[in-house]
Amino acid sequence: MGIDVRLPIGAMFTLLGILLGVYGIVAPDQRSGGANGVNINLWWGLCLLVFGVACLTLAIRAHVKLTKSTPRPSGSDDAHGREYDAAYRSPSPQQDARSDSV
Question: Which pTM value belongs to this model?
């Protein structure tokens, strides 16, 4: 199982939201020409921050739920590994000889 895509996306949006929100607080006079006096940097920073925190929360919740619901196999020889080995095992010499005669 790989990394949940919500984790890096949530981290990126959270970081960008914090940076843009802080910039909106520090430099409130930097407004867009069509913003009609609205501090766009602050509001978009807050939107990015909310979205990033939501992604991080969902990723962490899914990870916790996954680790609670699926117990870890004890040892390296679990059932899935045995199925994989049986499906992809090289044929034995007896099986190879039978397949040539058919």
Answer: 0.61
Quote the CA–CA distance of 55 and 52 in Å, as a whole number.
5
**pLDDT averaged over 10-residue windows placed end to end, the chain, 102 residues:** 84 96 87 73 94 94 81 57 59 60 54
One DSSP character per residue, the chain reads: ----THHHHHHHHHHHHHHHHHHHHH-TT---TTSTT--HHHHHHHHHHHHHHHHHHHHHHHHHHHHHHSPPPSSS--HHHHHHHHHSPPPPHHHHHHHHH-
